[in-house]
Amino acid sequence: MTKILVVDDEVSISKLLQFNLEKSGYEVVTAFDGKQALEKAREEKPDFIILDLMLPYMDGLDVCKTLRQEKVNTPILILTAKDDELDKIIGLELGADDYITKPFSPREVVARVKAILRRTQTIVEAQSKEDDLMLQFGSVRLYPEKYEVYRGEDKVELTPKEFELLHHLASHTGRVLTRDQLLNAVWNYDFIGDSRIVDVHISHLREKLEDDTKNPRYIKTVRGLGYKLEG
User: Fold this and answer.
1) Rounded Cα distance, 166 and 181, in Å
2) How far apart are CA 73 and CA 173, in angstroms?
3) Whether residues 114 and 142 fall in one domain
4) Which residue of 55, 58, 108, 203 is most buried, as measured by CB atoms within 10 A?
5) What is the pLDDT of residues 134-152, one digit of tens each?
6) At 200, which helix (H) or strand (E)?
């Protein structure tokens, strides 16, 4: 069951939201001030947070900021007063997913929660797909869907052909691939008979991925045969 943390110092509003959310099938936990909100968020690990901005002890903006600094990516819907345009903007800049102004219809809040959860789930599924397709060796990660490569936390800029060559090698980790096989897979024989294009691209990849290009850790030369990638 999806768990929602409702944070509002007005008990009547908190109970109204709790009633309507539970009626819609959600589990609800509540908090009535900023410090309590942080404690509940850390302990309960909710799937969604409805967060009023005007709170005792610690306002909602600071709660939102703290959670995002702690890498808590739980969707947050902030509740704001009708005329607090600046707070809405700041809240969104701090990482809130959406806002709704008081007074509000409980039905509108529930609809907004459902919409944000659907959108979040779509993003999570897309990220999971990327992670499933991701190839990794050592500290290097390849994301085929996005044509992106990272070495640790640093993005590595590769040309399309460099990426395709690296992707083919990484898809056959530990296997020796001849220059002709690589020509066929990456260049479709456009350079048949001239394997130097492979050597040039291998050299470029080593410059971008290896600490020591003369003693490469990942892309190994197999003398007389070709290349292989080791994890």
Assistant:
1) 13
2) 34
3) no
4) 55
5) 899 999 999 888 889 999 9
6) helix 196-209
Out of 128, 155, 188, pick the residue that ends a domain: 128
Asked if pLDDT for residue 132 goes beyond 70, the answer is: no
Check which CATH number belongs to the domain holding 30 and give it. 3.40.50.2300
The whole-model pTM stands at 0.60
Report the CATH number that the domain containing residue 209 is assigned in CATH. 1.10.10.10
Same domain flag for 139 and 123: no
If asked whether residues 25 and 42 sit together in one domain, one would say yes
CA neighbours closer than 13 Å in the CB half-sphere of residue 131 = 6
Per residue in 159-205, pLDDT (tens digit) is 888 998 999 999 999 999 999 899 888 876 555 556 788 898 999 99
Question: What are the residues facing 102 on neighbouring strands?
Answer: 81
3-class secondary structure, 118: helix
Of residues 110 and 88, which shows the higher confidence score? 110
- Domain stop point among 128, 148, 177: 128
Contacts for 97 with CB less than 8 Å, ≥ 6 apart: 75, 76, 77, 116, 120
Residue whose tokens read 């990638």: 229
